Amino acid sequence: MNLRGDILTIMDIRGLLGMPSAPPGPDAKVMVAQIGEIRVGIIVEEADDVTYLRPAELKPAPASARSGGEEYLKGAFPFKGVMLEMINLEKMLTGGELLVDETV
User: Fold this and answer.
1) Is the sign of the CA dihedral 57, 59, 62, 68 positive or negative?
2) For residue 83, how many other CB atoms are within 10 A of its CB?
3) Which CB contacts under 8 angstroms, 24+ apart, belong to 20-25?
4) CA–CA distance, 79 with 100 (Å, rounded to integer)
5) How many CA atoms lie within 13 A of 60 on its CB side?
6) Which residues, in sequence order, are CB contacts of 91 under 8 Å at separation 6+?
7) CA–CA gap between residue 11 and residue 101 (Å, rounded)
8) How, if at all, do strands 29-35 and 38-44 pair?
9) Is 72 exposed, middle or buried (CB count within 10 Å of its CB: 0-12, 13-18, 19+)?
10) In this structure, what DSSP letter does residue 8 have?
11) Whole-angstrom Cα distance, residue 24 to residue 68?
12) Cα–Cα distance between 95 and 79 in angstroms, integer?
């Protein structure tokens, strides 16, 4: 993806989270994230809001909410009446389990 002249790698992290992967369509949405020197685009279904989270608000993710990829979960936090799980993106990007598919 070209972001203001910078070429970003686009990631589909669904497989790492135990979700079925699907090829991105023409209307795919991408969230840009940066961990240290690594900047990537992550395919997302939607983004509704942005919030700031204090570390004290992060709780262990409930076992009933886990569907795979638990090693990449940092925990869960309440947001607008529901519990959201937080992904450990740093571990995901530096863990060495990502594959590059240059055919897409």
Assistant:
1) positive
2) 13
3) 23/104, 24/104
4) 34
5) 3
6) 71, 72
7) 10
8) antiparallel
9) buried
10) -
11) 21
12) 28
| Closest C-alpha among 45, 85, 91 to residue 65 | 85
Six-digit token string for 28: 């795919």
Closest to 51 (Cα-Cα) out of 19, 72, 73, 80: 80
Say which residue the tokens 């608000």 belong to: 57
| Amino acid occupying residue 43 | I
**What is the Cα–Cα distance from 76 to 20, expressed in whole angstroms?**
22
Q: Are 38 and 93 in contact (CB under 8 A)?
A: yes
**Structure confidence by residue, pLDDT tens digits, 8-40:** 888 888 877 778 877 777 788 889 988 888 888
Which pair of tokens denotes residue 93?
């990007």
pTM value surpassing 0.90:
no
